[in-house]
Design a protein that fits this description.
Blueprint: H1 6-16, H2 26-37, H3 42-49, H4 53-64, H5 77-84, H6 86-101, H7 112-132, H8 139-148, H9 151-159, H10 161-171, H11 177-185, H12 189-199, H13 204-211, H14 223-239, H15 256-259, H16 265-273, H17 276-285
Helix pairs in contact: 2-3, 2-6, 3-5, 4-6, 6-8, 7-8, 7-14, 8-13, 8-14, 9-10, 9-12, 10-11, 12-13, 13-14
């Protein structure tokens, strides 16, 4: 990697000075410890999560979304956890809690609900595609990385609002948002996202996927996982469902065809088209 510019170093110093970004929500530790102590005690796990009504609502929203794919609608958290399993529950709680820990009020430049829909759609689509395309060993990581792929956008909107506004203004002149980030901050959101998840001590495969989710063919190790998130991310733009303005000018990495073992670009396009209706139904189901 090239040495960081002075501008990038200033940005990193600002972000590293925000101590609350590094702290991991207590509920993640509690759920993790409860699973280790009593792996099969779903009732106790449900009671623990239910203490946080917002978290409970979001876990149920994931479980009940058409794209997540449970066979029946669930209203009981305990039943949902039983169907999903404890390890999957921990991943969902981790993704939701980390994202929520950075939650900000919507502003003229950042609509939190739209961001949340985008994150959920990308996470669930990446998870579903991993299973359908023969990468089922990646389904848990695909969900977590998909949910958190744009987590640093929240950081820009909340803690660097002036620079974020400048990036938005610059990107309106037919310039890629990605390039405008580098021009104004010295770094882009994918790099900052990688640093955040490293601070949270998430697996290296998650941090790498977040860093390379726009250019999966350049990922040194987990190209398949990065490609799944990249394809899911691009689907929000293709369908104009759960799409966000910062992805509007991004290029698609054509190497995804080969990385995900499609026989041709046409086969991939057909595969993607099958998701349009379920994206629409899932987006409509995400209401809190």
């Amino acid at each position: 990697m090239e040495p960081l510019s002075d501008k990038a170093q200033i940005t990193l110093k600002k972000i590293e000075g925000l101590k609350n970004l590094i702290s991991i929500p207590k509920i993640i530790f509690e759920v993790s410890q409860a699973i280790k102590a009593e792996p099969g005690n779903v009732k106790k796990l449900a009671r623990m999560i239910e203490k946080d009504q917002g978290l409970t609502t979001k876990v149920l929203a994931v479980a009940n979304s058409p794209l997540y794919g449970l066979q029946k609608k669930v209203s009981s958290l305990e039943f949902a956890l039983m169907l999903m399993g404890t390890e999957e529950t921990l991943r969902i709680v981790t993704a939701i809690s980390l994202s929520e820990s950075l939650k900000i009020k919507s502003t003229k430049n950042f609509e939190y609900m739209e961001y949340w829909k985008h994150s959920m759609l990308v996470g669930m689509a990446a998870r579903d595609m991993s299973i359908r395309l023969g990468f089922s060993d990646l389904f848990g990581e695909a969900f977590l990385a998909g949910m958190l792929h744009d987590v640093s956008i929240q950081v820009f909107a909340q803690y660097l609002p002036k620079e974020f506004e400048e990036i938005i203004a610059a990107s309106k002149n037919n310039k890629k948002f990605f390039d405008c980030e580098k021009e104004i901050l010295g770094v882009s959101h994918d790099y900052i996202g990688k640093l955040l998840v490293q601070k949270w001590k998430l697996p290296e495969v998650i941090s790498e996927t977040i860093e390379f989710h726009h250019i999966p063919s350049q990922a040194p190790n987990g190209k398949e996982l990065s490609a799944l998130v990249h394809l899911a991310d691009s689907m929000t733009q293709e369908f104009l469902i759960g799409n966000c303005f910062w992805d509007k000018t991004l290029s698609f990495d054509g190497n995804v065809v080969e990385i995900l073992n499609f026989k041709s670009a046409e086969e991939m396009v057909h595969f993607v088209s099958e998701y349009q209706e379920i994206f629409k139904d899932t987006a409509e189901s995400i209401v809190f």
